[in-house]
């Protein structure tokens, strides 16, 4: 997003907030200015930097607004807006995305019912509290409720890293917790995109096998973390927790496998399975696999013909002549053909990963010292670790990046720390260098030569095609790993556009690994890019980019993303033993 858009968004927020507090006229001038800033051909940065008439050249921008633009360009925020946000702590964008709710209504709802976000709004509407405010009635409350479902959908999909722990918590609660099994529950699994480990999640799907569905529904709707129960029936229910919709379905145990297969999706994968079944005179649906040879009207009902499978998912696939297909592959991208040919990959798993090659300490922007990060990696079970603090460069928070001198000094500190930590773990001295706009690497060659491992990553200027830039970094003789190759942030910025095939060919040629950054905000490379990279012969590295020891646990998100890209252990640099890793690093191509 350009700075002009960012300024315009803030002016629009000003207008909304002024309107919410009942200020007249002023909101219109903010909106007009926002429109003109957005459309202005020159960037606000260049207008602020230039010595001409500055930002006041933009129509509708007078002295007061100009000062705010300068403030934003120089500091990244506008003090007065921060104050407004503190005074009226509402999620203005989310609330006004509900049809019929404007800024003024947001102000009233906050004053009367302390409604701050969509969750609060939904709860208040369901509890019929809105109709009691003067100026509202039952009809406007019903309209708001109808609009909320749309607004949730229009809002962003949740990150896997947020939805997954929430889903696991729900699963454990419904199953009866750690110690005490819930007797009504025979089996219980997460399904849907969460089970496929998609990087973003529309809603969480929980499937339970039980002969007492009403007891299961009751336990589900009683979950202490639920903010609202959206609906509850005899074998189905939905709730919302932490802004995430969670759907429950209860089925009888003999249909659990078929339901799990169906509700895991993806939809297109299921269609592929069903088409294959039809060729074999079988009917496949969420209730089972049925032999319909000799059945007059196969469409007479859901359970027609003779049941041949349904209790287990493996049985479902077996009935249509396929091996079990791992959920991460079920995206209708050739997995059924591969299964038929006996060519499904033997996917990498978290146990195969032996070390982390991208980790920060408090020498740069990490939260803990070198010793803590080494001890944490050993405790996590790693056999080796590379410390790769940020080198100074564009996009790195001021004063956190290391100079060449700092890096020389840190080498000794890493060696001392490794000796001090009482654990069997090999520690490499590395750096995360910046890949500049022209593909240059932001650390002196004399320093790079002395390091065991060099991660190079893009941190700024993340617009447009970055293929030449990344390939240039790959060609640098000291670079070993390209960190978060696109620089994307899920739901926030798309990052560089890359021709992954070209990047991967270069990486393969020069013996450079491409990272799958396991941070759930990044997952960069994506599963799709991993697949392209591997097919072009590249090696990948699954790293956490941990800034504190607890983040070593994020590894699984990277591993499952690699699995979505059909990666086997042999494709993963840090699944090699330490000698194998050293051989890769020493091979200067
Ligand atoms: P999401 O929630 O948008 O992240 O994605 P999913 O895949 O979890 O989709 P969801 O929650 O709408 O439905 C769960 C699964 O149920 C989906 O992956 C496949 C199956 N499913 C749902 N609706 C249909 C349908 O109309 N046809 C077929 N074949 N499968 C469906
Ligand atoms: Ca779902
Ligand atoms: Ca769903
Ligand atoms: Zn990093």
TrEMBL record:
Documented EC number(s): 2.7.7.7, 4.2.99.18
Domain Polymerase/histidinol phosphatase N-terminal: 355-437
Catalytic activity: 2'-deoxyribonucleotide-(2'-deoxyribose 5'-phosphate)-2'-deoxyribonucleotide-DNA = a 3'-end 2'-deoxyribonucleotide-(2,3-dehydro-2,3-deoxyribose 5'-phosphate)-DNA + a 5'-end 5'-phospho-2'-deoxyribonucleoside-DNA + H(+); DNA(n) + a 2'-deoxyribonucleoside 5'-triphosphate = DNA(n+1) + diphosphate; a 5'-end 2'-deoxyribose-2'-deoxyribonucleotide-DNA = (2E,4S)-4-hydroxypenten-2-al-5-phosphate + a 5'-end 5'-phospho-2'-deoxyribonucleoside-DNA + H(+)
Family annotation (CDD domains): NT_POLXc (cd00141), PHP_PolX (cd07436)
Subcellular locations according to the entry: Cytoplasm
Entry's Gene Ontology cellular component terms: cytosol
Keyword Nucleotidyltransferase on entry: yes
Annotated ranges, domain Helix-hairpin-helix DNA-binding motif class: 53-72, 93-112, 128-147
UniProt cross-references to InterPro entries, sorted A to Z: DNA-dir_DNA_pol_X (IPR002054), DNA_pol_lamdba_lyase_dom_sf (IPR027421), DNA_Pol_thumb_sf (IPR037160), DNA_pol_X_beta-like (IPR002008), HHH_MUS81 (IPR010996), Hlx-hairpin-Hlx_DNA-bd_motif (IPR003583), NT_sf (IPR043519), PHP_dom (IPR004013)
Molecular-function GO term, any one: phosphoric ester hydrolase activity
Domain of life the protein comes from: Archaea
GO BP, one annotated term: DNA repair
Keywords, comma-separated and alphabetical: DNA damage, DNA repair, DNA replication, DNA synthesis, DNA-directed DNA polymerase, Methylation, Nucleotidyltransferase, Sodium, Transferase, Ubl conjugation
Cofactor: Mg(2+)
Ranges where the DNA-directed DNA polymerase X domain occurs: 1-331
Any Pfam family: PHP
Cited function: Repair polymerase that plays a key role in base-excision repair. During this process, the damaged base is excised by specific DNA glycosylases, the DNA backbone is nicked at the abasic site by an apurinic/apyrimidic (AP) endonuclease, and POLB removes 5'-deoxyribose-phosphate from the preincised AP site acting as a 5'-deoxyribose-phosphate lyase (5'-dRP lyase); through its DNA polymerase activity, it adds one nucleotide to the 3' end of the arising single-nucleotide gap.
The protein, known as: DNA polymerase beta
């Amino acid at each position: 997003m350009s700075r002009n858009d960012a300024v315009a968004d803030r002016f629009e927020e000003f207008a909304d907030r002024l309107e919410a507090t009942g200020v007249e006229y002023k909101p219109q001038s903010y909106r007009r200015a926002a429109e003109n800033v957005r459309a202005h051909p020159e960037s606000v940065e260049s207008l602020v930097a230039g010595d001409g008439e500055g930002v006041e050249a933009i129509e509708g921008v007078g002295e007061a607004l100009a000062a705010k633009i300068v403030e934003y360009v120089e500091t990244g925020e506008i003090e007065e807006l921060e104050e407004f946000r503190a005074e009226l702590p509402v999620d203005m964008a989310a609330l006004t995305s509900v049809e019929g709710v404007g800024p003024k209504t947001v102000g009233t709802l906050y004053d009367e019912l302390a409604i701050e976000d969509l969750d609060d709004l939904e709860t208040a509407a369901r509890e019929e509290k809105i109709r009691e405010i003067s100026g509202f009635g039952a009809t406007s409350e019903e309209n708001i409720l109808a609009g909320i479902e749309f607004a949730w959908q229009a809002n962003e999909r949740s990150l896997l890293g947020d939805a997954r722990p929430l889903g696991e918590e729900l699963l454990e609660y419904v199953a009866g917790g750690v110690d005490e099994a819930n007797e009504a529950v025979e089996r219980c699994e997460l399904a849907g995109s969460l089970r496929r480990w998609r990087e973003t999640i529309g809603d969480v799907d929980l499937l339970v096998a039980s002969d007492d569905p009403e007891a299961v529904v009751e336990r589900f709707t009683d979950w202490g973390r639920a903010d609202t129960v959206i609906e509850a029936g005899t074998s189905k229910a939905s709730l919302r927790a932490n802004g995430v919709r969670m759907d429950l379905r209860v089925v009888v145990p003999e249909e659990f496998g078929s339901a799990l297969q169906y509700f895991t999706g993806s939809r297109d994968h299921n269609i592929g399975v069903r088409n294959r079944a039809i060729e074999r005179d079988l009917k496949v649906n969420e209730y089972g696999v049925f032999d319909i040879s000799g059945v007059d009207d196969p469409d007479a009902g859901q359970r027609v013909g003779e049941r041949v499978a349904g209790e287990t998912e493996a049985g479902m696939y077996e009935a249509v002549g396929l091996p079990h297909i791992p959920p991460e592959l079920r995206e209708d991208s050739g997995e059924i053909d591969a299964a038929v040919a006996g060519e499904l990959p033997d996917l990498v798993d978290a146990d195969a990963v032996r070390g982390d090659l991208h980790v920060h300490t408090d020498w740069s922007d990490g939260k803990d010292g070198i010793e803590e990060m080494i001890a944490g990696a050993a405790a996590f079970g790693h056999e080796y670790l590379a410390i790769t603090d940020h080198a100074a460069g564009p996009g790195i928070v001021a004063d956190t990046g290391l100079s060449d001198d700092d890096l020389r000094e840190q080498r000794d500190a890493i060696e001392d720390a490794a000796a001090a930590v009482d654990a069997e773990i090999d520690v490499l001295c590395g750096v995360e260098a910046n890949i500049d706009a022209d593909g240059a690497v932001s650390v002196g060659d004399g320093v790079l030569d002395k390091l065991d491992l060099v991660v190079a990553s893009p941190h700024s200027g993340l617009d447009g095609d970055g293929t030449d830039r990344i390939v240039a970094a790959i060609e640098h003789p000291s670079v070993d790993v390209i960190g978060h190759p696109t620089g994307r942030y899920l739901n926030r910025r798309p990052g560089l556009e890359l021709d992954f095939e070209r990047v991967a060919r270069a990486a393969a040629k020069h013996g450079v690994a491409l990272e799958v950054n396991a941070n759930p905000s990044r997952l960069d490379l994506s599963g799709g890019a991993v697949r392209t990279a591997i097919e072009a012969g590249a090696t990948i590295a699954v790293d956490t980019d941990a800034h504190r020891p607890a983040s070593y646990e994020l590894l699984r998100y990277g591993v499952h993303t690699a699995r979505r890209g059909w990666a086997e252990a042999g494709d993963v640099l840090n699944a090699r033993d330490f000698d194998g890793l050293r051989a890769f690093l020493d091979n200067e191509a």
